[in-house]
Amino acid sequence: MRLDADQLAAFAAVVDEGSFEAAARRLHVTPSAVSQRIKALEASVGQVLVQRSRPSRPTEAGQILVRLAGQVSVLESEALSELMGELPGARAPLRMPVAVNADSLATWFLPALADLPAEQAMTFDIRQEDQDHSIALLRDGTVMAAVTAEAKVVQGCRAEALGAMRYLAVASPEFRRRHLESEKMPGALASAPMLVFNRKDGLQHRFLRGLLQRNADPPVTYLPSSWGFVEAARLGLGWGMVPEQMARPAIDAGELIEIRPGHPLDVPLYWQRWRLESAALAALTDVVKARGLGLLNQDANKEHAGQGR
């Protein structure tokens, strides 16, 4: 049995775009044509590959083909580039799906993409995902590479250490005066309003357990924006863990203060990518490593692995 290239491309488009209609627009065909190709592919492998939901998702069997479709797309794009060179219209830019945590996106990751050499014609489908959870997107083939807190190599991937993102516990000076009087520290943190990025964010609770040697359940404001998180802390809405690169300017300006100076929290980060001989993936890996190794803390305390956002 051989898989049909057009059917595989239709399957990949449905998974990437989330619907048959969006996949049809991407492929410049009708939704009916996409549906027929998917049905033919499912008939050839004898299994349902796509959940007809909103958004459309691959079934467990379909996940096996997601990675294959991505690999075929990368290799085809690079082969066409070698064959046709720089002829106008020779190929569309390769679209690279990547999972990145919010704080890396807000600090060092986008400048890494800007460092890519001009000859690497590439666009990106960036999935913002907590670094503790991005590994699942690699396993199911949704992304080709990810910034992750997981050191264990995913099957079929390569992993390289980048360094660690250093977080500082910060609050506004007025918030500290109102909620964290020095004679009550650190116990006052157990009831002081706390900022949390989202329900996957374990940084603040990890920091509290380290200080109090017990669990605590303070009032929480959820704020899923890296820059909004810093602004909320600056305005006194709560205390929270902020990447040092983002916190330092506000600390230097007197708008934020460290709650416990000398007690940072380091979250080691890793770059995991498909084990595929691809010039595009290699170039992306080079710029990510260069930026990560240049900006992230290289002396991470490994006991804090897996606690970031």
What is the structure about, briefly put?
The protein is an alpha/beta fold and 309 residues long. It contains twelve helices and eleven strands. Helices cover 42% and strands 19% of the residues.
Care to describe what's here?
By secondary structure, the chain is of the alpha/beta class. The chain folds into two domains: 1-92, Winged helix-like DNA-binding domain superfamily/Winged helix DNA-binding domain (Arc Repressor Mutant, subunit A); 93-309, D-Maltodextrin-Binding Protein, domain 2, CATH 3.40.190.290. It is built from twelve helices and eleven strands. Strands 3, 4, 5, 6, 9, 10 and 11 form a seven-stranded mixed beta sheet that branches. Strands 1-2 form a two-stranded antiparallel ribbon. A two-stranded parallel ribbon has the order 7-8. Helix 9 links the parallel strand 7 and strand 8 (220-222). The chain starts with a helix and ends in a 14-residue tail after the last helix. Residues 301-307 have low confidence and may be disordered.
